[in-house]
Design brief:
5 helices, 8 strands, alpha+beta, two-stranded antiparallel ribbon, Deoxyribonuclease I, Chain A
Length: about 280
């Protein structure tokens, strides 16, 4: 799927240097905007390995209709199913432009199995963006999660109260939740906290930070990168059409070419960090 030079397209996953050797590129999707990694389970305190997918699905627009959204999620569902054949531990995350409101997952046979361990999943999810109602992408995400099954963490506690992640650059923009995380049951049990990083001011989205407590990776640097330090006068990242060609050329040389040539140690990017046990 070619997205070269297009505004608001593409997925990147940034992996901290301290995870070198524990994270490997599995594949880049040819059909949707998605990157799949395999990660040593020690990072999440689970046996074996974890398959992580970073996804982006565009919103409905004049150029993209509801049927297109159904098709994109159908492909995403196929790729998640394939990921689940590699490992029982699957984690997907990204901006899929899904609004969930307080709607719960469909009560499929697979999802009902989760209720035994997590009975709270049967209650309405928390939602801090009350104007946001269930949309097509939201229903597709719920259906996908219920069929695997995955737990969508949005509004399911552990610090996630359904808070907004999209704020826009204009004061007239109504905040909404478009970023979501979904994971298999054992990963959810190991997840210690989910929150938005409020200090990020350069973008129109606030990233979500997930904390998994293991205590086995003491060498990992837990300091926040410098761009997350508070500043009242930080510049915002704004797309400039005149710089598009340079940007695309840099991405091709730094990301696409190393992967095409089989250099899986080439740069890749979506922040994955591990935090140690609480004191």
């Amino acid at each position: 799927m070619s997205i070269e030079g297009q505004k608001g397209q593409g997925v990147a996953i940034f992996v901290h240097n301290s995870l070198h050797g524990l994270v490997h590129l599995h594949q880049i999707s040819n059909s949707i905007q998605a990157i799949w990694l395999t990660i040593n389970g020690i990072v999440f305190s689970v046996p074996g390995r974890v398959v992580l997918g970073g996804l982006y699905i565009n919103p409905v627009s004049n150029a993209r209709f509801q049927n297109d959204i159904f098709e994109l999620f159908s492909i995403a569902h196929t790729e998640v199913m394939e990921a689940s054949t590699l490992s029982p531990h699957v984690l997907i995350l990204g901006d899929v432009n899904a609004h969930l409101g307080q709607t719960g997952e469909p009560q499929t046979r697979q999802f009902k199995q989760l209720l035994v361990s997590f009975p709270r999943l049967s209650t309405p999810r928390l939602n801090q963006t009350h104007h946001s109602k269930l949309n097509t992408a939201g229903q597709c995400l719920l259906d996908l999660a219920a069929s695997i099954p995955l737990i969508i963490t949005t509004g399911r506690g552990k610090g996630d109260i359904g808070q907004a992640t999209f704020f826009g650059y204009s004061n007239t923009t109504s905040p909404s939740r478009t970023e979501h995380v979904a994971m298999t049951a054992e990963l959810y049990a190991q997840c210690q906290g989910i929150r938005t990083v409020q200090k990020v001011t350069k973008m129109d989205h606030k990233p979500l930070k997930l904390q998994f407590c293991t205590g086995d990776l003491k060498h990992i640097d837990m300091r926040l990168p410098t761009h997350m330090r508070k500043s009242n006068h930080e510049p915002k990242l704004v797309w400039k059409d005149q710089a598009a060609e340079t940007c695309v050329n840099n991405l091709v040389s730094d990301y696409v070419e190393p992967i095409r040539l089989g250099n899986r140690r080439g740069k890749c990017g979506f922040s994955l960090r591990h935090t140690g046990p609480p004191h």
